[in-house]
Amino acid sequence: MGSRDRAYEQFWARLIGRIGVRQPDWPTPGKAPVRNWLSLGAGTGWFSYTTSFGRKELCSELYIKVPGDAPAGQRILAYLQSRRACWKAPTDTDSSMSSCH
Fold first, then answer.
1. I need a labelling partner for 85 at 20 to 30 A (CA). Which of 4, 71, 76, 98 fits?
2. How do residues 51-71 score in pLDDT, each as one tens digit?
């Protein structure tokens, strides 16, 4: 394993540990990956997240698997819009994410 791979693994291990402390009910992988990206479940089959190291910054993507009908897509969109206040990035002293379950 190269030094970059070890750095990724250490970073993801710290992130997974921090998520486990701050949001113990959120699903997390059992082991930190040795790559530049980490997939995180969202507790539902419709959403998942991937966080990755881009060229110059940390990136995050939300994946949405919409069932095959338009009304379901509209419900998901309405749900996300209703949770808009939860989208801001938390800081070390910010506990606002605890109200975004």
1. 71
2. 999 888 999 998 888 777 788
Identify the DSSP state of 83.
T
- Kind plus residue range of the DSSP H or E element containing 72: helix 70-82
Please give the single-letter amino acid code of residue 57. Answer: E
pTM: 0.66
Buried b / exposed e along 31-46 (16+ C-beta atoms within 10 A):
ebeeebebebeeeeee
Q: How far is CA 30 from CA 3, 17, 80, 87, 92, in A?
A: 22, 10, 27, 25, 24
**H/E element, 81:** helix 70-82
